[in-house]
Amino acid sequence: MGLSQALSTAMSGLRATQASLSLVSSNVANAETPGYVRKTLNQVTGTTGQYGSSVLITGVNRQLDEFLQTQLRTETSGAAYADVRSDFMANLQGVYGNPDSTGTIEDAYNKFLTALQGLSTSPESQSARIGVINAAQSMAQQLNATSQGIQTLRANAEAGISDSINSANNALQQIARLNVQLAANGGTTDASTAALLDQRDRYVTQLSQLMDIRTVTNSQNQVSVFTNSGVQLVGTEAATLSFNAQGTMTSNTLYNTDPTKSTVGTITITFPHGGTYDMVSTNSIRSGKIAAYLELRDNTLAQAQTQIDQFAAAMSSALSDKTTAGTAATAGAQSGFDLDLSGLQNGNTIHVSYKDNTTGLTHNLSIIRVDDPSVLPLSNTATVDPNDEVLGIDFSGGMSSVLSQLNGALGGTGLQFSNPSGSTLRVLDDGAANKADVTAASVTTTVSSLTSGNPQLPLFTDGGQALYTGAITSSGSQTTGLAARISVNTALIGDPSRMVVYSTNPQTPAGDTTRANLVLNQLSNASYSYSPQTGLGTTGAPFTGTLLNFAKQFISQQGESATAAKQLADGQDVVLNTLQTKMDSTSGVNMDEEMAHLLSLQNAYSANARVMSSIKQMYDALLQLT
Who contacts 481 (Cβ-Cβ below 8 Å, separation ≥6)? Predict the structure, then answer.
């Protein structure tokens, strides 16, 4: 080997050592930088002559385990989803409160029952009457406050979606920008390229916190990001996400796959070269913070609202609904019942049972009064009875229209409807034809007067004026949001004696316990069915029980859900932290290793410098001989 070849070899060693020293210093400086990946030098042997070889630098290597990185991003999405849900469920549990403490639905209801027991014992006591009114007001206010708390959480979820969309758009724009810069480097990986890759990976990880994603990298170091459902978010250009936040959230602000009926914000993606896509109705985002916020806003919290709305509706109707059996009626060979519809209001129900003599089956009809024909036809889910057949009838056109609709819908069954006089509805079988027999008929109406002569009373009202009748209109069911609007009848507040006096002609005695006993029995002992939309029971087997049973059940369910959400979040965090620790051990900076490497480089640098020094001495000796 000639001296020049030896000098070239030593110089290549010095250059490689200097480059390695630069990377070691960068590794040490960024040891605590989030997302930084340890860098090493790629070196290969190069030929410098017949008898020697030098070292060549071919690029910078990032000590990255891509499979582990993919797992980490998946678990990052899952952990973000679980953490958001856990936080919200804990807050929802706070809205309901501890069942054993004051200021809860259960506590207010128990105090209401206690006040009613006092009234039942001393109906003539003015203080007992006022006590019931005060307890009822506390009950209504507790439902109002709970509803407000739920809607505040839904508003927070809506705000969380908006903030997340802004963060996602920023990450997408940055990924696209870095993709362009990386393509300009031609796919080579030097120190500057490696730094760009670190930056891009940090933005991809940020995006994985917001939604579930997968990535595809090409030969130019460019990454394309997709949702797990297959929607491309970014390549060399970024798509844009938009969210039309609706502001104030109320019980009636609900998501619907039909955009004309949806009253909450939806997420739309606009692709770089045109075209849009609704990412909510297509379930395109399935994990991460955004998916959690959507699930909470549209399902979990909406169901919590449904639970207290159902409770408010059942409590109201339990006290004001009166069911009157039909009176027997005949017309020749036909037989059936006459029903007095004078008190029937929008949402009230006519019940008719008949036996189909051809099949031997008994059918239970629930004929619901509807004053808004745009909601027709009604589905069988309009009531919670799994065994009835629901028929909505438009009453806005008068009795003749009602008869036409009933006979048109049910004429084939053998039933015949008529109006013999006034507000009487007559339902008869087909007589000699013996196709069907009417076995029972009744009508359930809402008592609207405090002194109607009936012990039932409208103790609670909807918004201070309207009665709760279960009305169904184009704006939805009256049940929706009732917990936010329920209040005590102002006429009762003005005259507490009506808690006992239900008739003025003749006058109900001051010590009469009829009304007090009915109210107490309805609220403490009577059993009711509740909609499966509450998350309890099913369509075929709805949850049935007293109002207190129902309250305890859904409050307990929320507590269990909060505990389960916390356990899931804790489990996800353990998995994420384990993967992050593993990632740090393989791709992060280990200070001990870097220091050991630094000492090795120092020795190599000294050795190469010593070789160059020796070559210089040889050159000097040669020059002296000439």
Answer: 147, 250, 251, 252, 305, 309
